[in-house]
Recover the amino acids of this structure.
């Protein structure tokens, strides 16, 4: 929280404790006027809104607590709005819910709005996956099914309600005590959450229904929360650049940085923002699915028994595998796959095109149905009772994914006339950032060859940004300022993209001088 948060009431949280003078024959001000005028004075504004349903409850609540109350409010479309009233001395907390609404994974955090204390946190696979693993499939489902949009919305709302029930049970509180929810997701996920038609998001000129949703009541969505709870939805910038990355910008504070920094969040898409306190440029492109389990048949998201680190012994050229929770391997996640590709290249088991050498050259390479495969683990060593195989087609997919990632980074830096060496920090967010080893990503040419100290893994910046706006009221205004300052670069119409992409489809690149630190083993 900023230093001036204790002295400037506009820079504190969303809860105020007020002691009002009870009405009398000499002071017959209406109950709502009494409360809202005092709250407005506390906030430094002339007007605070309130819904009719809450207005009906005020007379009872004010007298129940002898006009000593806590007011929970929010700033919506530039105006403050009362969303709840609690007794100032009662123990019932005012709760907030932060949600990272991912295409594949959803994370929810329950916290105390007054103290910022995290009370419980949970994550789950997005159940919309049963309709389609990516947003394109889900949008096509809506196009082809009359009730498709309603079904997708119901699926995610029901899953969130189940998560809310679990979080509140773990924290010992009731869902009715949730007054504010902050949701950060990509543009399509935001539309599906709100029940908006995403049809035009994927069609030229790529226009969403809305970029800055406002006035959203939890009850309207069917979300289990307080009866007057409001939902803060992080705004979008473009069809492929959503509120999840704006939440990441907020969390990193890069919009206040004097130095030029870059933030990369790889999920379903690779979303990138570059800039400093004076300017921000953003873009997004399809480089993520390959790293979320889409490259190989044995690929999957991180979890118990999943390979997350791969090494190769220089002397014996045998694999050294690490799995999450040290269980027998059952698959490989994105970080493990990047490690594997880097080790294969450095050890000379694949060439600069990512092609496996002939079976006779390495014992780990076999040919099945005319296609070369890499035996990563034997049947006896796995949890599946069958060998873990990486095919040449799998490696080809990874080459395309890494080339797309590097091309996006190269294109956005060139767009503003900078080189990679001009970057003071390279922030990597999400699961991609939490587990990836930059040295491996550099070795295959996925990330630029910068000093490793430049790279900083930040974890789930989408969730952290959503949590920030629940405890630091001034951050909500920053969101709008961030969004309005971003220049969005549409990669779909960028003429240089394919030329750069073709050059990047080699380990580490056709121009090896760009990667001076990468050296193949003798």
């Amino acid at each position: 929280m900023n230093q001036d948060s204790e002295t400037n009431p506009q820079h504190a949280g969303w809860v105020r404790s007020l002691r009002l003078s009870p009405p009398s024959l000499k002071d017959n001000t209406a109950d709502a006027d009494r409360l809202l005028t005092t709250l407005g004075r506390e906030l430094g504004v002339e007007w605070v809104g309130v819904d009719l349903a809450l207005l009906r409850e005020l007379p009872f609540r004010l007298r129940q607590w002898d006009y000593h109350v806590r007011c929970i409010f929010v700033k919506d479309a530039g105006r403050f709005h009362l969303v709840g009233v609690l007794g100032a001395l009662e123990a019932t907390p005012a709760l907030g819910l932060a949600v990272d609404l991912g295409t594949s994974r959803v994370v929810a955090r329950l916290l105390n709005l007054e103290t910022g204390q995290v009370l419980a946190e949970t994550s789950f696979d997005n159940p919309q996956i049963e309709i389609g693993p990516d947003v394109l499939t889900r949008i096509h489902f809506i196009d082809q099914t009359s009730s498709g949009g309603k079904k997708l919305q119901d699926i995610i709302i029901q899953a969130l309600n189940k998560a809310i029930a679990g979080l509140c049970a773990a924290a010992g509180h009731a869902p009715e005590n949730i007054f504010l929810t902050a949701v950060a997701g990509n543009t399509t996920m935001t539309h599906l959450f709100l029940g908006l038609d995403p049809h035009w998001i994927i069609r030229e000129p790529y226009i969403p229904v809305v970029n800055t949703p406002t006035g959203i009541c939890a009850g309207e969505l069917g979300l289990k929360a307080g009866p007057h709870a409001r939902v803060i939805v992080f705004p979008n910038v473009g069809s492929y650049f959503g509120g999840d990355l704006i939440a990441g910008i907020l969390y990193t504070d890069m919009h206040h940085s004097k130095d030029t920094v870059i933030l990369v969040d790889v999920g379903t898409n690779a979303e990138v923002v570059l800039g400093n306190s004076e300017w921000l440029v953003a873009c997004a492109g399809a480089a993520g699915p390959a790293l979320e389990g889409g490259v190989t048949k044995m690929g999957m998201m991180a979890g118990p028994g999943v390979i997350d680190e791969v090494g190769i012994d220089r002397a014996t050229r045998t694999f050294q595998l690490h799995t999450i929770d040290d269980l027998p391997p059952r698959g490989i996640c994105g970080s493990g796959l990047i490690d594997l590709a880097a080790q294969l290249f450095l050890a000379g088991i694949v060439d600069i095109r990512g092609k496996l050498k002939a079976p006779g050259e390495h014992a780990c390479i076999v040919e099945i149905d005319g296609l070369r495969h890499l035996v990563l683990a034997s049947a006896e060593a796995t949890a599946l009772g069958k060998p873990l195989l990486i095919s040449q087609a799998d490696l080809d997919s990874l080459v395309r994914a890494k080339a797309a990632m590097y091309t996006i980074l190269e294109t956005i830096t060139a767009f503003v006339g900078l080189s990679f060496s001009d970057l003071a920090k390279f922030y990597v967010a999400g699961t991609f950032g939490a587990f990836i080893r930059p040295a491996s990503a550099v070795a295959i040419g996925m990330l630029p060859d910068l000093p490793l100290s430049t790279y900083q893994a930040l974890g789930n910046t989408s969730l952290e940004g959503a949590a920030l706006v629940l405890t630091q009221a001034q951050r909500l205004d920053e969101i709008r300022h961030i969004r309005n300052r971003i220049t969005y670069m549409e990669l779909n119409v960028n003429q240089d993209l394919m030329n750069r992409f073709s050059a990047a489809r080699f380990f580490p690149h056709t121009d090896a001088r760009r990667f001076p630190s990468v050296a193949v083993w003798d």
